Here is the input.
Amino acid sequence: VRSLLAANVELVITIVKIALLLFIVLTVNAYLTWFERKVVAHIQSRWGPYRVGPHGLLQPLADGMKFLFKEDPTPAGVDKLVYYLAPLLALTLALTSIAIIPFGPDPIHLFRRDIYLGIAPPNLNTGILALFAITALGVYGVALAGWSSNSKYPLLGGLRSSAQMVSYELALTMSVVGVLLIAGSFNLRDIINAQARHPERGIFGWNVWPQILGFFCFFVAAIAETNRAPFDLPEAEQELVAGFNTEYASFKFAMFFIAEYTSMITVSCLCTIMFFGGWLSPFPASWTLTHYLPSVILIPFGLWVIMDGVRYETIFGRLVLPAVGAVIAALGLAFVVFPPVNEFIQGPFWMLSKILLFLFIYVWVRGTLPRFRYDQLMAFGWKLLLPVSIVNVILTSFVILMRGAK
Amino acid sequence: MTAPLVVFFVLAALAVIGAVSLILQRHPIHSALSLIVVMVALAGLYLLMGAEFVAAVQIIVYGGAIMVLFVFVIMLLNAGVEERTSLSKMAGAPGLLLVVALAGFVAATIAKSGASVQAATQTGALSSTKGISEMVFKDFVYPFELTSFLILVAILGATVLAQREKS
Here is the structure.
């Protein structure tokens, strides 16, 4: 067994990485639902989930149990094969796309090897193209679910969604061309490193400044591409019950649900990488004191959770919350005590902070903006986003030409 | 067998099975799905040959854009199951003959020029994004632009033809 392991170290490492990332992504997914419900609730002056666990923190677990144990009827007259294939396809593609994202600059040295954060090899030269290839297939999950359900609301939802995704994919792809021109590479790592060409500029070296038009088009198109509010017409409940997933129940519904939240995470990662410097710190490289920022945030937050937990209403909360707070504070303290660890987590820390920020914006937009009408949606995509992103490509190439080729 | 060879046979089998299923399926959506399987399997084969860019574009353009349009139209028309007609013997016999002739021709070509097939599959310039872009935008820039122009004209023509007449 040992020799077999030694012969296939790369394979074993990759499998472990996949299992780990899958676990992390699914957990984040679960807590994203909690986060979304809490944020939307506070936007609407409500409390949100509060009953299951302290601050409703066990709500995702309860939801998961419910998904697993609900009755799972198959409606009459469905196209069996496609009906079962659709949620599987949606979930698989959503989870695959996250494998391409790199999460940190430096490798971990383990087993005499450099293990990079992220599943795809660091020299994946078609990074962004591979991602777009996977997203391009994502539309089938929704379209086929709508078609195979043998019911009129899902069919209409599926049709809307395929039309919407095809329309917005153009703007989505065009809007990143400017970034690719600046970086001169499809490789996601190269794109991030290109934003660190002037380390003393910090936040002002990021692509979002020269590519503000591109970023606007990208983010709007990405929200539409993931079928989130205000572009969630495929599942507009006043018109279509629940759209393409009306006839799905139990775990098959959960698969669509997880797929949607996973693509939210992927899009947030992409926004971070393409326009907001990925794992780069917003401060100039010479400000080494900012390296203590993770601890400065984590320790007070942990202490606050402890303080809050001690005064919590339920006994369970009084036990669990201080423990969680202690873990967070201890983590922050550990970063101060072990400088190499602190240096290593700088990249992932900024990356994750930015991803979290984008996820918040996603939820914020959903809590704030009303849904578009269908013709408005189409007009917006074709008549505004696409021309603007094309103008952005022309402007960017012009500027790069003026400054001289690299 | 080496690992790439195993992957090749799996992908090749997928492509062939998908192609056969495309013809045999009776529902248009199932046929379209089979065609998607073929496209993705082909992309896998390109990847195996080291042509990353071509593989990604194959999935984006064929697997994504074009097939989505197919599926969309089938859904929109709500096309049902095809009806099978009994094969006419007149069409069957020459058809079979043609199939045998075609298969023989392909086999003979491969057998005769095994070396040149090998050479053709050794993708040099096509493997890198840079090589492709230099070919398309430098060596063959005029044919390429002409083709784009032709497609643009076709799009305009389709739009004009599809427009409702103004009353």
